[in-house]
Amino acid sequence: MAAPCASAIVDQLRGAGLNLSLAPAGGLAVAPSSHLTEDLRALIRDSKALLIDWVKSANDADSAAPEPSSNPASPTDWHALDAAYLAHHFNCPTCIAAGRGSRYGLRCGTGAALWRAYSAAQLPGPQYFNSTPTKG
Q1: What angle do CA 44, 109, 103 make, to 5 degrees?
Q2: What angle do CA 11, 44, 17 make, to 5 degrees?
Q3: Same-domain check for residues 46 and 84
Q4: Are 18 and 25 in contact (CB under 8 A)?
Q5: Does residue 17 belong to any structural domain of this protein?
Q6: pLDDT tens digits, 35-71
Q7: CB 3.0 to 4.6 Å from 4: which of 8, 47, 104, 125, for a disulfide?
Q8: What's the structural domain count of the chain?
Q9: What pLDDT, on the 0 to 100 scale, is given for residue 23?
């Protein structure tokens, strides 16, 4: 049987309500410890090096991604904002998990900034506002 990939292990740990980070000495910090079961402890112990590499790469991706402009985007900029967000999203395990729903966590700092910039962009075309509630 093949060993599980880091993102599958991280998904399992997040599903248990655990957060991963690097400890100051370079080890792995898992919190809150009150959520750890013996099975999860064994999984973390057996996958420690893999998880440390995953956290480091997630942190490297966060620091390498450029911050989006604070200026609201013009209608022609939304394509670039969309491309920037998607390029980050599909390479960031944290943002991939967040894209599955709120119970899987939030986007990382870079992903959140890119998403806000994209969401704030004005899409081309007329803006219609329906003041009459629709019947459902």
Answers
A1: 55
A2: 45
A3: no
A4: no
A5: yes
A6: 888 998 998 899 888 888 888 887 665 555 555 555 5
A7: 8
A8: 2
A9: 79
Q: Does residue 94 contact residue 82 with C-beta atoms inside 8 Å?
A: no
Query: What is the H or E stretch that residue 29 is in?
Result: strand 28-31
- Averaged pLDDT score across all residues of the chain: 76
Q: What is the pLDDT of residue 38?
A: 92
Query: Whole-angstrom Cα distance, residue 100 to residue 27?
Result: 28
Give a yes or no: residue 134 inside a domain: no
Q: At a CB cut-off of 8 Å and minimum separation 6, what does 96 contact? A: 7, 89, 90
Sequence-separated (6 or more) residues with CB below 8 Å from residue 114:
65, 68, 81, 84, 85, 88, 89
Q: What count of residues does the chain have?
A: 136
> Which residue range forms the structural domain that includes residue 73?
65-124
Residues 39, 76, single domain; the answer is no
> Considering the domain boundaries, does residue 136 fall inside one?
no
51 and 70 assigned to the same domain? no
Residue (of 70, 74, 75, 76) closest to 114 by Cα position? 70
Is 77 domain-assigned?
yes
